Amino acid sequence: MQSLLPANRVLRIGMSVGLLLVLVVGGWGATEETASKSASPAKSKSAAKDALVPFQDLVGGWIGTGQPKRNSTSGAWREKAEWRWKFAGEQVALEYAVEEGKLLKSAILSFDPKSKSFRLKTVELSAGKDQTVEREYVGEPAGNKLVFDTPAKEGAEGRRITITRLNEKRTLVLFEQKGAGQNFFNRVAEVGYTREGTRLAESDQTGPECVVTGGAGTIKVSHKGETYWVCCTGCRDAFNDDPEGVLADYRKKLEERKAGKK
């Protein structure tokens, strides 16, 4: 049976259909790729938060005593520190701020989902506290410790910071360094922290829970007439930015927790 359309018109129709298929398929692929890219930062943020949650007990205020020599008051000093969560865009981290310290001014503890490693970016005091220097460390957990080292460079000195969580009321931060070519670290000083406002003999008490991280709730927030708790100002800011999202995640975790007990 002969075609009722001219050959050139049939060719044009075939080309149009082919082009339409290319656009539809191409558009679908682009949509999937866009969705995948948009989901990736959210997954990375969630993974980073999950990796940092075990260190939730660092959050809060601390009173510290620094000692260059173990069990000696020679050159010792007192300082204050505070840990808090930081939610900024796609970044999730724990901020560590120090007042009246001699070695450290501030630090940011984060987790890199790609390399599956912890990172510590510091602002350290130098030249009698008149100057500061920024350093970046890479570390990994070892029991109740987080051990961070500066990247190894041939002919360069190395530095190490070890954070030891003894319990929810006691934390140690050890600073060490080694000269170029050395194989061992030497102690610079160690700061022993006691949680602000607590006594070591006090027994643990259960209380309200932070709806952002699951830590101990210390600050009240509200949404639609209901009161909730968060553990620090960083979590308070995260809650105020997206209360519906935070509460949805928290309710999901509560349901998973109940299901796990059954």
Assign the CATH class of the largest domain.
Mainly Beta
Strand percentage: 35-45%
Global outline: globular
Strand order of the largest sheet: 1-2-3-4-5-6-7-8-9-10
Q: Ends: how far apart?
A: 71 Å
Explain how this protein is built:
The structure is a single chain. This protein is α+β, with helices and mostly antiparallel strands and 262 residues long. The chain has two domains: 53-195, Calycin beta-barrel core domain (Lipocalin, Beta Barrel), CATH 2.40.128.20; 206-257, no CATH class. Helices cover 28% and strands 40% of the residues. It is built from three helices and twelve strands, in the order H-E-E-E-E-E-E-E-E-E-E-E-E-H-H. The chain has a ten-stranded antiparallel beta barrel with strand order 1-2-3-4-5-6-7-8-9-10. A two-stranded antiparallel ribbon has the order 11-12. The N and C termini lie far apart (71 Å).
Provide a concise account of the structure shown.
The protein is an alpha+beta fold and 262 residues long.
Topology:
Layout (H helix, E strand, L loop, with lengths): L6 H46 L7 E8 L9 E12 L2 E9 L4 E9 L4 E10 L4 E12 L2 E5 L8 E10 L2 E9 L7 E10 L23 E5 L2 E5 L2 H9 L1 H19 L1
Antiparallel strand pairs: 1-2, 1-10, 2-3, 3-4, 4-5, 5-6, 6-7, 7-8, 8-9, 9-10, 11-12
Helix pairs in contact: 2-3
List its traits.
3 helices, 40% strand, 2 domains, globular, alpha+beta, two-stranded antiparallel ribbon, Lipocalin, single chain, 262 residues, disordered N terminus
